[in-house]
Design brief:
The chain is of the alpha/beta class and 266 residues long. It has two domains: 1-44 and 93-135 and 186-266, TPP-binding domain (Rossmann fold); 46-90 and 136-179, SIR2/SIRT2 'Small Domain' (2-Layer Sandwich), CATH 3.30.1600. Helix content is 32%, strand content 16%. The chain contains ten helices and nine strands. It has helices at residues 17-26, 53-56, 66-71, 73-84, 95-105, 120-124, 152-160, 188-199, 219-225, 252-260; strands at residues 30-34, 109-114, 131-133, 136-143, 149-151, 175-179, 203-207, 229-233, 246-248. The strands form two sheets. A six-stranded parallel beta sheet has the order 3-2-1-7-8-9, with helices on both faces. Helix 6 links the parallel strand 2 (109-114) and strand 3 (131-133).
């Protein structure tokens, strides 16, 4: 049975881990899209889940909107405190991240397109060239005027020293993390690489993402339209479940290793 002919368009029987594992293990080229859900087991909360940042604090999204950030110093001050206290600085990769490293070592990982900014894929051992950080990284700060990039640790040291909204040391411009806020354009090169990896795969696995944020979510459709089978691993329903060959609700740290383990290695 070919991968394309095995695709399922309804939710009648799309919760079979065995089917998902068969698809992934049979694929020569697998592209993975990861969202906040893969990092929750590392202690980094998601945004929209029951314990998500935005669920618990309705005012938090203002920090992630570029117009608010530029216009309101109080928003920037709060954002810098949030960055200083971000769990990414002490988080460690979990079994889900490590499973994708195993898939890479098998020679079948096409790319990881991640919506996450925490750097845990690289910390787990994924080759940086294969990780497309479509929403940027928290590990650097960028000046919104001159585009100078600075290690985030250097800027946070200034916050710790009492600078509530540290300006760029080159041009005195406003700085923020090198992440993509609402209202900012994605990096065209990163987006192009992500679209290419989505078109050129046998199986596309969406992990820990609500698939509500565009254009990242649309990569599922790009892969599907190009003939790939879609596997969704997420605790809550997503808009793309209906075209998925398999939809899995089990914890990611337990599920991903089962999908990538070669027969006989379990």
């Amino acid at each position: 049975m070919s991968l394309r002919s095995s695709r399922v368009r309804t939710l009648a029987d799309v919760t079979d881990v065995g089917l998902a594992a068969e698809l992934v293990r049979s694929a020569a080229r697998v592209t993975v899209l990861t969202g906040a859900g893969i990092s929750t087991e590392s202690g980094i909360p998601d945004f929209r889940g029951p314990q998500g940042l935005w669920t618990k604090d309705p005012a938090a999204p203002a920090m992630f909107t570029i117009d608010n950030y530029l216009a309101d110093r109080d928003v920037r001050v709060r954002a810098w405190r949030n960055r200083r206290d971000h769990p990414a600085w002490t988080a460690r990769p979990n079994a889900g991240h490590r499973a994708l490293v195993d898939l890479e070592r098998q020679g079948r990982l096409q790319a990881i397109v991640t919506q996450n900014i925490d750097g845990l894929h690289q910390a787990a051992g994924s080759e940086p060239e294969l990780v497309h950080e479509i929403h940027g990284t928290i590990w650097e700060a960028v000046c919104l005027t001159c585009q100078r990039r600075t290690p985030m640790a250097d800027v946070l040291a200034r916050v710790e020293a009492g600078e509530e909204d540290p300006p760029c040391r080159s041009c005195d411009g406003i700085q923020k993390s090198a992440t993509i806020s609402f209202g900012q354009a994605l990096d065209p090169a990163v987006l192009e690489a992500s679209v290419h990896a989505s078109r050129d795969c046998d199986v596309f696995v969406a992990v820990g993402t609500s698939l509500q944020v565009q254009p990242a979510a649309s990569l599922c459709g790009v892969a599907y339209d190009a003939g790939a089978s879609l596997v969704v691993v997420n605790a809550e329903p997503t808009p793309y479940d209906g075209i998925a060959a398999a939809v899995l609700r089990e914890p990611i740290g337990r599920t991903l290793p089962r999908l990538v383990t070669e027969p006989g290695d379990a």
